[in-house]
Amino acid sequence: MMAVVLVAAPAIALPAASAQDDDGSSAQATPAIELVGQSMWLAAEDSFQISFRLLDAPGESTVDIIIGVPVRSRSAFLDRLAEPSTGLVLHQISRLAVPEPDANGVASLQIATTSSEGREEDGPLLSLPAEGVYPVSLVLRGSNGIRLHTINTVVVRTPPPDSNQPPLLVGTVLSVSGAPAVDPGGNVDLGPAGPSLQALADVLDPRVRPHLLATVALDPHLIDALAISDQPEHAQLLARLQQATINRPIASNTYVPLDSDAWIGQDLSLEIGWQIEAGAAVLDEHLGSQPDRTIMVLTTSASPELLQRLQREQVELVLVPDSLLHPADELVSTSARTSFLLPAFDQPAQAVAIDGSATAHFTRSSSADAAPYLVLADLAVRWFEDPQRLRGVVLAPPLASLPDSTGLGVLLDEISASPILSPIDPAAIVERLEPDTLREVRPAEENGFGEDYKAALSDGQRIARSYQNMVDPIATVGTPERRLIETLERALLLSGAYGLTETQRDAYLAVVAQTVRDTVAAIQPPSQQRITLTSRSGSIPMLIRNSLDHDVIVRLDLNSDKLDFPDGDSRLWRLYPGVNQVQVAVRAKTSGDAVLEIRVNSPTGLLALGESQLTVRATSLSGTGVGIAAAALAILTVWWARSWWSRHRPATALADSDGDRPPSEPSRPPGFNSSK
Fold it and tell me: What is the pLDDT of residue 166?
């Protein structure tokens, strides 16, 4: 997840002399020796070889080789490095003629060594009577014997092979981190991380070191920056990193380094998982290698809250710089105890300490050429302190401090060649070594953010995802709309980077809001107009313009007091570039004018794209009115018929009764007057 912060060792002053005036200014080019390479591990009677390049040395210069007494403890080794002039001299070979240099200007001396006294042999001999780490000085002298320059290095006399003496397990983490490599404007600038990535590609070149054991820990945002850059050198570097990381273990990492404690303190614990997921996706897509999600390198904190969060993310092992930890009972600086436990809320987390004191020689040594040999000697004296005990150490060489990959390559090659060191994957250290202590973490260095960041990040995520919903179901890989989604996500992720100021965070978040605002402004809702509906139901045409160069999905929300919508008052619609005619089915409740409100939103409704009003005039009765009118007409017809029948029936009925009375009908009573 995170790049490694190393613990600095005490300053190591290695003396160097040069021809200077009394006032300290150089009167002429200063003669010097530049170390090119040397033997590091010498068994009994092996030859010691050292290669060097002379710079501005006068003719007939000579060199002296001075061997100091061996050291077998780290404290003695560091003391000797701090004050090399106070160390006891074991052996010295003086005034050796400088061999003829090769075509590259490199001269080499090869000198036999002896572990016994009084051995006779033609030519000089170096006496290495016992196992241990020997300080070595190479002194350049002029023809008059004056010392012109000195370089200090080391050589290790190794013991005979012994199966009862396990090697020191050495895990290496090659970590590259840096500030956000993409600014809010989308410009790519790798900064100091660029040379580090180059060095990583060089040292892991499969043609040179196909079987090198090293865990890679990269800030995913750096790889993402290479992928989106239009600079040819960035494309070439990405291709080299793809080759360099094939079949290499890659630790999981957040997209950018985080102030994890601040994120957890602001209740952004879930967003840490979001950063981890984004980082894994970038490494998988652009390196073609899935990171090991069970291993993570921490940089800014190792608090119990963070460890608990990582356990939920299925992280089984964390690699922690010593700078984040309180010292163990046994001083970390003098031990190689690496596997331990860190406290967490639920249960302790397995951890491996990254030892920054050994690799600090790369930054503290006055000679970059000798630095890898000093690191190797530092590891060797740890082994000599307790050769019977199986121990381990994890290194993270400071790639940002290396001028190139040469010294790192020397270190890794010599670890592989050493009879007392054994390269191993850091995760394997936990398998080989039982955790032997519970280490507490130091308080994290605060680099938090204001309370407003959480709300601003949430708003930015809402806006970005609203646009994503507009195009995600229909966008294909590599399309402009897909790249825009990635741009929005990238800005949100970068806004959380460790070390940013509030102003810088706000700048990334502002990119999200402004980009989406400018994009959706190309969606124009229907213009206001009057539409006549000639029947109680029908379809109303609306014209919506999409001025983008790609399709989008929008949601139309409809509202009216006098209209019903048979297909629903909310509909998703795909808008193609240009003018789109949208047909909306309506049913008028009454005749007359009705106001139809139209809102164009993102599919989730969280992003408003525009609104408009249409006036709909219904000129026919509604279905209810027609029914009432028909019923009234039927009633009137029945009433008229009954009235007509009542007026015409009495006279006709009476006439028929007089003429057709049957004979048996009784006679009328007396006195009956029909005229009445």
Answer: 93
| pLDDT per residue as tens digits for the range 184-231 | 999 999 999 999 999 999 999 999 998 889 999 999 999 999 999 999
Strands ordered across the beta sheet of 107-114: 32-38, 47-55, 107-114, 125-127
CA separation for the pair 296, 350 (Å, rounded): 11
How confident is the model at residue 328, as a pLDDT? 67
Q: Which of 400-404, 570-574, 618-622 has the highest mean pLDDT?
A: 570-574
Is residue 355 within 8 A of residue 4, CB to CB? The reply is no
DSSP H helices, 392-449, are 406-417, 426-432
Distance CA 317, CA 296 (A): 7
Q: How many CA atoms lie within 13 A of 483 on its CB side?
A: 8
pTM over 0.70: yes
Cα separation, 492 vs 511, in Å, equals 9
φ, ψ for residue 641, nearest 5 deg: -65, -45
Token pair belonging to 108: 């080499």
> What is the Cα–Cα distance from 662 to 654, expressed in whole angstroms?
15
Residue 624 CA to residue 622 CA, distance in Å, equals 5
Helix boundaries (H) for 291-405: 304-312, 356-359, 361-364, 371-385
* 41 and 417 Cβ atoms separated by less than 8 Å: yes
Supply 486's token pair.
């990635």
Closest among 259, 436, 252 to 351, alpha carbons compared: 436
From the CB of residue 222, how many other CB atoms can be counted at a distance below 10 Å? 28
In contact, 421 and 167? CB cutoff 8 Å = yes
Residues whose CB is less than 8 angstroms from the CB of residue 584 and which lie 6 or more positions away in sequence, other chains included: 539, 540, 542, 556, 558, 565, 567, 571
Distance separating alpha carbons of residues 15 and 259, to the nearest angstrom:
40
d(CA 238, CA 455): 35
pLDDT tens track for 366-398 = 778 899 999 999 999 999 999 999 999 999 999
